[in-house]
Write a structure and sequence with these properties.
globular, mainly alpha, 2 strands, 2 domains, 10 helices, two-stranded antiparallel ribbon, homodimer, DNA-binding
DNA sequence: GAAAGTTGATATTTATAAATACTAACAATT
DNA sequence: AATTGTTAGTATTTATAAATATCAACTTTC
């Protein structure tokens, strides 16, 4: 049980292997990252490392771009609509000063969050980042908070 | 007061005038319409007619496409995330059979809604369609239902 | 009833997002 | 210490979304 999760989330693939698994170029992977679509693990040496969960996430992003024809800016905007404040349960005060809560163009995990509950969080480990990478999951979350 | 609203919503411009006001071609307007991004008024003769509010809505769509670089499919997906069920207050039963509630690729106003509270609604007149054409308003709505 | 405008539909062009190809410096692996 | 892979850049190519052009039938307007 736990073992499965560990192997899902353990960063084991270097970027070249990830690129092969996804059938895209190394550079495309870095472009997605630069755009804030995902966050790879980084080793002390600054080299990226990808888990199986990372690969699945990126497959989902690819599908949005190539099948659903949603542009990267479109995906970022959709991510920006995730009601993260409900997931991390931040305070009213935090929300007031949160760039992500008050914006609608970039995912929350692309911002720094000085002086909020998210300040010292590792977004790569956050439920907001991990649980809502797919469109239907975003909508499910919106549904769940509205009942 | 009311007068202002009437003049805002009264369909008075033929498509050629709308195109000139927006500085785009007639065909582009029809393309946006075919994609379900907006719904113009139609006269008995089947000819389209645009209000000032329609023009403003389309300016917003243009900005999303040209400045924010969100593709039309991206815009449709964002519209599909509007929690319309909260606005029209449809029943659980309605939701179960609603293609829009259960999908996440097209705005609710592009579906027929047989056997639901929306069945006989004119979407062009609906708050869902009118109040949430802009991204920040969609996010505001998501915020408001989550408190 | 003639002129101007609109309809839908298809074919074509244009603009640009997405992806690739370079580079030289640095890191890892053997 | 030599080979292989990674890094962050910029420059270029490719794929395709967005916009335009053209058409003949129909509608409105004066």
């Amino acid at each position: 049980m736990t073992e499965i999760n560990i192997s899902q989330n353990e960063p084991i693939f270097p970027i070249s292997t990830a690129a092969k698994l996804l059938n895209i170029s190394v550079h495309t992977l870095r472009m997605y990252e630069r755009e804030g679509l995902f966050i790879p693990y980084k080793k002390d040496s600054n080299q990226r490392s990808y888990s199986k969960a990372d690969i699945e996430r990126i497959e989902c992003i690819r599908s949005a771009i190539n099948e659903s024809k949603i542009s990267m800016n479109g995906i970022k905007t959709i991510y920006s609509l995730i009601p993260c404040w409900q997931v991390v349960k931040c305070s009213d005060d935090d929300r007031n000063k949160c760039e992500s809560y008050n914006g609608h163009s970039k995912p929350c995990w692309t911002y720094r969050h000085p002086n909020t509950v998210c300040e010292n969080k590792n977004c790569r480990m956050c439920d907001v980042y991990n649980n809502f990478s797919e469109c239907h999951k975003v909508k499910e979350l919106i549904k769940s908070i509205s009942r």
